[in-house]
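One-letter codes give the sequence; each number marks local geometry. A record appears below:


***
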Amino acid sequence: MMRTLWIVVLLIIYQVSVSFAINCAGCTPLDGLSFDKIISKFRASLVKFDVAYPYGDQHDEFAKVAKDAAEAGDLFVGEVGIKDYAEKDNMELAERFELTKDDYPSAFLFVKNQDGKIESFRFVGEFSAEKLKNFVRQKSGIYLSLPGCIEEFDLLVDKLLKSSKEDQKKVLREAEDLWDKVHGPKMHKRADIYVKIMRKIVDTNISFVKKEEERLK
């Protein structure tokens, strides 16, 4: 009797753990039949290729992105769980994107271009929510907020970096005007940091940004 109860308990624990491992809030499981059908419906799709029952820090970081992307209507977030044993679920997708078990987890961003064709970009770097969000933004233009950031200023920074030296001063003026309209000490301090950095870029050049990137690595 006790042995039977113990087996039942183990089965329950297994089922619960598997359900947590398979699903993260905002992630949709994909397979060979649904992959292209769903990807084609969205402007951009962020997909993680991983073992069938993922867990750990990298899975948690991806889950953070999925949660924060819930309100981004143009962005789909999905997962492909791959087995290299038994039924070999989704191995055809792993082969299609030239992935082996040593590559998991891997994230790809699929973006619909102006011609309606899907382009794919493989994420490279530290598998963190912040890096993944920046990756999505750089490749698709879809904004996902980061801690301590302000969307309006982030977009102005993007505009500044793409502008000529002459136009940069106009963009800086936009940022300064927006700064004056910010309310609350916390938001005002964040806006102040944006404006100071943008002034530094205008007064020097984009090499300032590259030097800061190297310093922070």
Remarks:
- Residues 1-21 have pLDDT under 50 and may be disordered.
